[in-house]
Amino acid sequence: MVSAKTSGVYSITNTVDGKVYIGSGDNIHRRWIAHRTLLRRSCHNNTHLQNAWNRHGEQAFVFAVLEECQREETVVREQTHLDRVFAERPRQEIYNVARCAEAPMRGAKASMLTTLRMSAALKGKKRSAETRARMCLAQRGRKISDEAKRNISVSKSGPNHPMWGKEFSAERKQKISAANKGRQITGQWLENMRAAARSDKRRAKISAVLKGRAFTPEHRANWMAAMRRRQEATLGVE
What CATH number was assigned to the domain covering residues 8-93? Predict the structure, then answer.
């Protein structure tokens, strides 16, 4: 019997077809109780496991402790077991939706009905200042890998961009114009923009993006015209 405070990695195995689910927790005993309760109520978030439970019955499933470890090591050790299981078994014999222990729902796709329900539930809902502050704090200091940045860029480029091919209506343009009318650019704001543009990090990024890129005479002319307008606007403010 697993003690109430044991932390580590566990498995839930279907003895009928041998399919397995891998998980981890700070309290394995409590995690098994939670899984079993949700499965008995037919509301487990893993639909593959839930469907199998409904089909074969509770008696067909065996819970086992694969490894006991320190609490801070549970996710790392779970990932090790996930890697092993995915390497040894065909995908259809594993109940886990994702291969990543840190993001167990990665790869899961909501049905159209679920998507519509989520959209309807959130429509018109405004987050409180406290909620926004907590969300901001949770994202602070988060670093996105270069690969993730490239994937985001590709997913939002060209036809994938939500504004691709769309034009603002006359009413929308008037609202934008009214919102920006009378807006003043301070000298401090301009100085901050200049400092950001002159930073080594900014120059390195621009250099990497433009490396090997050929500019047409028309592009150069447009760029020079834009620079002249920018200088004139700057001088006008100062």
Answer: 3.40.1440.10
